[in-house]
Design a protein that fits this description.
By secondary structure, the protein is α+β, with helices and mostly antiparallel strands. The chain has four helices and twelve strands; from the N terminus they run βαββαββββααβββββ. Helix 1 (about 10-20) links the parallel strand 1 and strand 2.
């Protein structure tokens, strides 16, 4: 089920409130807004709510035999990638950047925000379909700059179906196939990255893939390899 609403503060926040209030939000259900007045991205950034863009959230209820919940970020990235690729015609223009950005060239076209509430993971996704925000330190782009503006409702239905399919694969096959597929869709190995860690340190190196748990592998300038478990990652 996909519920479309004209306006809300944040689709993630609405699902959190529903769960806290004892409501049953089923896997496979999505909340999609025409406009968000308090949308958020990673690190508390405000999320652009331009008309015609996709802003939606769903939930996953990880079970005891499921892969680690943090790898849902990679799952969401693959689902998003698989949904957007057919709209571009040239998949070589599209790439995933750890942990949860989708890029066209160096420009961000979509982002993912995961939040935990009790035993539920809320997955929020924002995609620049019709327009892109101006962000001081980041390049952005909308799919409308590359071709016809995608229909938001059709995009929502397609993403919902792809996400369900990837969730089933995640549960049945584990994370090894997911890691391989994610890395094949990622920015090229060797791409220079700077990681702004939660404590404020900036670590620079080159993208070297993912480790067995899905963390970012960064090859430092002295050749050492470092696993990054959290941080804000930028190209260059």
């Amino acid at each position: 089920m996909i519920e479309f609403v004209a306006e809300t503060g944040s689709t993630n926040a609405d699902l959190v409130a529903a769960i806290r209030g004892g409501g049953r939000v089923a896997e496979g259900d999505w909340l999609v807004a025409d406009r968000q007045t308090a949308g958020r991205g990673r690190q508390g950034r405000e999320w652009f709510d331009g008309a015609g863009n996709f802003m939606g959230s769903t939930v996953v209820r990880p079970g005891p035999n499921d892969p680690p919940a943090p790898t849902l970020s990679l799952l969401a990235g693959i689902a998003l990638y698989e949904t957007v690729v057919p709209l571009l015609g040239d998949p070589s223009r599209l790439a995933l950047k750890w942990p949860n950005d989708l890029l066209v060239g160096r420009a961000k076209v979509a982002g993912i925000l995961l939040e935990r509430e009790s035993d539920v993971v809320i997955v929020g996704i924002g995609v620049n379909l019709a327009g892109a925000p101006r962000i001081g330190d980041r390049e952005t782009i909308a799919l409308a700059a590359l071709g016809p503006v995608p229909d938001r409702d059709l995009f929502a239905r397609t993403l919902s179906a792809v996400f369900d399919r990837e969730l089933e694969r995640w549960r049945s096959a584990g994370i090894e196939p997911l890691l391989r597929r994610w890395q094949s869709a990622a920015v090229p190995v060797g791409s220079p990255l700077s990681v702004h860690e939660p404590g404020g340190m900036i670590v620079r190196g080159a993208f070297a893939g993912l480790d067995e748990g899905g963390s970012l592998l960064l090859r430092l300038e002295d050749g050492r390899m470092r696993s990054i478990h959290a941080g804000d990652v930028m190209l260059g």
